[in-house]
Write a structure and sequence with these properties.
Helices cover 44% and strands 18% of the residues. By secondary structure, the chain is an alpha/beta fold. Helix 4 packs across helix 6, helix 8 packs parallel to helix 10 and helix 9 crosses helix 11. The longest helix is centred in the middle third of the chain and has 30 residues. The protein is globular and about 65 Å long. It starts with a helix and ends in a 9-residue tail after the last strand.
C-alpha cells in the first residue's frame, strides 16, 4: 500500500521532474499471417494488428486519466517482417506500407518490426528486406526498422554490416528533403532483445507469446533532482544507492501501469523496461545526471565511470522493484534527444570516440548522432562493426543509429522536432576502413560464447 508521502512524492516527480511512462508497446506475433500469397499475407497482417491493438490507445489514455501518469507513446511491435517476406516472396515494401497503414488506423505513434535477424547469415527474405529499407522508410512515417547483425553466440555478419552502411546512406538520400529523417527510424543492433518496447529497435521476438504488453518507463529528471538534493559531498557509493532507490520507485509506477493495461486489454503483461531515456525537454537529460554526479561537462574525464555507476544502479533498483524487468533497462545516450548531450557536442566536450567508450557500459549504443552528409558508406559500416564488437565481446546489447544528413556539414544544426529532437552535425574520422569492410564474411564469436 502507498502512503500519502509516497503519493505526493510521485506527483512531484510527474509535475516537476519529467517522470513519465515513455511507452506502452503491444507486441503482436504475425507468424499466423504468413502466406505464400503476399496479398493474403498483407491482409492478414492488417486485420490482426487492428483487431489486437484496437483499444491500445484508448486504454493508455484511460490509465493516464485515472492515475494522472503521463504515457507519452502508444506503440506496436511485430514479428520481424523478413520472416513473412521469406514465405510470401514479392516486394517487402508492401509489408512496410501495410504496417504503416495499420498503425495509422489504430492511432499509435510508431510500429516496429520491419526487421531481420541476420547475425549468422541471410535466410529467405532477409536480404530483400534489408535492400528495401530506403524505399520503405521514404514511403512511410510511423514505421521503424531494425536489423540484428551480431551476437555473442554467433559473431558478426560482416556481409550485412557492409550492406547496411550502404542502406543507411541510401535511406539518407531518399529522405534528404526531410533532413534524412528516415535514418532516425533505422537501427542496427548486436544482441537485440526480443522484448524491447523502445523504438526504433522494437520487434516481437519469436520466443514471445502471441500478444503481450511491455512498458517502458523513463525518469532522468527524477534521478537528477534526487542527486541535486543529495549535495556534492556525499561519497560515491551513496550516490549509487540514491540512484538505486530512485529507480526502485520509478519501476513501481511502471508495474502499476503494466498491470492495469494488461487487465484492461486482456493481454499478458510482459516486462518493464526501466531505461533512462532522455528528451530535449529542460531537466530530462542523462548528461545532466552525470554532471550532477560531479563532472564539469558530459564527455570529460570521468564520464564513462559515472555512466557505468548510473547504468548499474538503475538495473539494480529496477530488479528490486519488479520481477518483470527486461528489455534494455539502463541509461540511453542519444545525442539529438538529450539537451545535455547536445550542449556537450556543440562545445566539443563530447566526440564520437568518447560516445563509443561510453557505450561499453550503458544502454544502448551510438544513438541519434548526426554525421556530415558526405560520410562514406564504408565509414558507417566501420562504425557499425566497432559497436557490434563492443556488444559481442561484452555480452550486451549495442546499436548504431546515425544520420548522415545530405547537404549538411560539421557544425550545422538539424531539428526533427518532438522526441527525436535535434542537434549539431558531429565530426567523424574519414580514415577509410574500406578494405576491411569489403572483405565480407563474418567475425567469429568470442570465447565468451562457449558457456554450454
Amino acid at each position: 500500500m502507498l502512503n500519502i508521502e509516497e503519493i505526493m512524492e510521485t506527483v512531484q516527480m510527474i509535475q516537476d521532474e519529467c517522470l513519465d511512462i515513455r511507452t506502452i508497446t503491444m507486441g503482436i506475433s504475425l507468424i499466423d499471417c504468413a502466406d505464400g500469397d503476399i496479398d493474403r499475407s498483407c491482409d492478414k497482417v492488417y486485420e490482426k494488428i487492428c483487431r489486437k491493438a484496437e483499444k491500445l490507445v484508448a486504454t493508455g489514455e484511460s490509465i493516464e486519466h485515472t492515475y494522472g501518469i503521463p504515457i507519452i507513446n502508444k506503440r506496436v511491435s511485430v514479428t520481424p517482417a523478413a520472416i513473412l517476406a521469406g514465405v510470401s516472396g514479392g516486394d517487402p515494401v508492401r509489408y512496410a506500407r501495410t504496417l504503416d497503414r495499420a498503425a495509422r488506423t489504430i492511432g499509435v505513434n510508431f510500429v516496429g518490426g520491419y526487421s531481420a535477424l541476420v547475425q549468422k547469415g541471410y535466410s529467405a527474405g532477409d536480404e530483400a528486406l534489408i535492400r528495401s529499407i530506403p524505399e520503405a522508410m521514404s514511403e512511410t512515417e510511423l514505421l521503424c526498422s531494425s536489423i540484428n547483425v551480431g551476437s555473442t553466440k554467433a559473431g558478426i555478419n560482416m556481409d550485412a554490416v557492409r550492406l547496411l552502411g550502404q542502406m543507411v546512406k541510401e535511406t539518407a538520400r531518399m529522405t534528404a528533403e526531410r533532413q534524412s529523417i528516415g535514418c532516425a527510424k533505422l537501427v542496427v543492433l548486436c544482441n537485440a532483445p526480443e522484448d524491447n518496447p523502445f523504438m526504433a529497435g522494437a520487434f516481437h521476438g519469436l520466443g514471445e507469446p502471441d500478444c503481450v504488453i511491455n512498458v517502458g518507463v523513463s525518469g532522468p529528471g527524477v534521478v537528477r533532482a534526487t542527486l541535486r538534493r543529495l549535495g556534492k559531498d556525499a561519497p560515491i557509493q551513496v550516490v549509487a544507492d540514491t540512484v538505486k532507490r530512485t529507480a526502485f520507485k520509478i519501476t513501481r509506477m511502471g508495474q502499476l501501469v503494466g498491470t492495469e493495461a494488461s487487465k484492461a486489454l486482456g493481454v499478458p503483461f510482459g516486462i518493464i523496461d526501466l531505461s533512462l531515456a532522455p528528451t530535449p525537454a529542460v531537466g530530462d537529460s542523462v548528461a545532466h545526471i552525470l554532471e550532477e554526479m560531479g563532472l564539469e561537462q558530459c564527455g570529460g574525464p570521468g564520464t564513462t565511470a559515472c555512466l557505468a555507476l548510473l547504468n548499474d544502479a538503475v538495473k539494480k533498483g529496477g530488479v528490486m522493484a519488479s520481477g518483470r524487468v527486461g528489455g534494455l533497462s539502463g541509461a540511453f545516450i542519444p545525442v539529438s534527444e538529450d539537451a545535455g548531450m547536445m550542449a556537450a557536442a556543440r562545445s566539443g566536450a563530447l566526440c564520437i570516440e568518447k560516445l563509443e567508450a561510453m557505450t561499453s557500459v550503458c544502454s544502448v549504443g551510438l544513438d541519434m548522432i548526426m554525421l556530415p552528409g558526405d560520410t562514406s558508406a564504408e565509414v558507417i559500416s566501420g562504425i557499425i562493426a566497432d559497436e557490434a564488437a563492443i556488444g559481442m565481446v561484452n555480452q550486451k546489447t549495442t546499436a548504431v543509429r546515425v544520420i548522415p544528413a545530405v547537404g549538411y556539414k560539421v557544425g550545422d544544426e538539424l531539428n526533427f522536432g518532438g522526441l527525436l529532437g535535434g542537434g549539431p552535425v558531429m565530426p567523424v574520422s574519414s580514415v577509410s576502413p574500406a578494405v576491411m569492410i569489403n572483405r565480407g564474411g563474418y567475425i567469429p564469436a568470442p570465447m565468451q560464447s562457449l558457456k554450454n
